[in-house]
Amino acid sequence: MPLVEARAWLEVDLSALEANWNLLQARAKGEVIPVLKADAYGHGALPLARFLLARGARQVAVAHPKEGRALREGGVEGEVLLLGSLHPAEAEEALRWRLTPTLSTLEGAQALAHRARALGLFPRAHLKVDTGMNRVGFPWEEAKAALEAVEALGVRVEGVYSHLATAGEDPGFVEVQRRRFQRVREALGPGYFYHLENSHGLLLHGGDNVRVGLALYGLIPGLGLRPILRLRARPTLVKRLRPGDRVGYGGEYVARGGEWLATLPVGYADGLPRGAVRQVLGPGGEVCPVAGRISMDQTTVLLPAPVGLEAVFEVLSADFGPTGLLAWAEARGTIPYEVAVHLSRRLPRVYRHGEEVVEVLD
Ligand SMILES: *Cc1c(COP(=O)(O)O)cnc(C)c1O
Fold it and tell me: Rounded to an integer, what distance in angstroms lies between the CA atom of residue 350 and that of residue 257?
């Protein structure tokens, strides 16, 4: 492994991302929109947007105008869809940065039309239809009237979409939403880009045009997808404990004596869920149990034998085992999304394609 000059870093495996992307494209009957909101669920939106747009993605999706703007400032030229419902206060930013907003209120549509006129820009949007989640979207029964009202304002509606509330949880309700969305398609007719399924929707039920996040990051087991992110760290201190030595806050770990201990410079501020990370992998893949509590910036682990400070530990591994992100989420009693989006922004990110390091963001 080529040397990375850092004491801790996140490493994204672009080869695995490419394999996931190819698998998802083969599954979908239509277009796959990569969902890169929340900095691509902690994986880094800009490098992933560039990588996927170069591999056939026509558009990417983010949540906030700020996230779209960061992609534009990073040189992304493709379509950028803003998920969520456009707030009137965001209309100008969406227009100026050529981002495609989602409309689910007439207030949003009016603001978009008015700001576009004032700026001499052309208003385009996707229409969000609520088929049962009751979060955002025009009610599906009123989709036709909503479309006409938005178009009457001079906004070009390019896409129409809805979001599944229970994919992976309640297949019966997925079918209810799919039927409602089909009714919307029939009422609105051709000429719009329709998209519905998320990761679980596509993988469990199939899909036409889809928006996928979690599956792209390989965080769904058993379907041939692979996680793409690792967190690696070098020890800042290695020492031998004496009998009775207590380690960390609360002195919770009490040494028998003779154990080797390494301090790794990552903690819960870097996204390690406190109380849920029980072990890391040592330089030779050996299991190193966490000793004592995880601190904000540091974690102490037990070693089978002493190592030098150049040794590289795998704190988070790109698999479905006990050091993987799904195990962290389960031990924390939460969903993998939440753990992923809390991975540190302060760690450097290394993007690797095969053995080659293609980009380092710091
Ligand atoms: C986040 C999001 C997605 C992606 O969901 P995954 O479960 O990660 O595939 C799709 N559509 C919308 C509207 C979203 O907000």
Answer: 38
What does pLDDT average to over the chain? 97
Asked: is 14-212 a CATH 3.10.450.50 domain? The reply is: no
* Nearest Cα to Cα of residue 345 among 40, 35, 4, 52: 40
Neighbours of 212 (CB within 10 A): 27
Q: Say if residues 306 and 240 touch (Cβ distance below 8 Å).
A: yes
**Rounded to the nearest whole angstrom, what is the distance from the C-alpha of residue 272 to the centroid of ligand 1?**
23
Q: 252: Cβ–Cβ under 8 A, 6 or more apart, which residues?
A: 246, 292, 293
Domain locations along the chain: 14-212, 229-361
Question: Token pair of 315, please?
Answer: 């704190």
User: Residue 2 pLDDT more than 70?
Assistant: no
- Torsion, Cα 173 163 38 158, to 10 degrees, reads 170
Looking at the whole model, is its pTM more than 0.85?
yes
pLDDT recorded at residue 3 = 55
Looking up tokens 């560039």, which residue turns up? Answer: 50
CA distance 288 to 182: 52
Give rounded-to-5 percent helix, strand, coil for the chain.
35, 25, 45
Longest Cα pair distance anywhere in the chain, in angstroms?
A: 78
Class of domain 229-361: mainly beta
Ligand 1 pocket (Cβ < 6 Å) reads: 35, 37, 83, 163, 198-199, 211-215
Percent of the chain with pLDDT over 70: 99
* Tokens (6 digits) for 112: 């978009």
Supply 117's token pair: 């006129």
Residue nearest (by alpha carbon) to ligand 1 atom 15 = 83
Above 60 in pLDDT, residue 205?
yes
Residue 50 CB-half CA count within 13 A: 14
Closest C-alpha to ligand 1, atom 6: 213
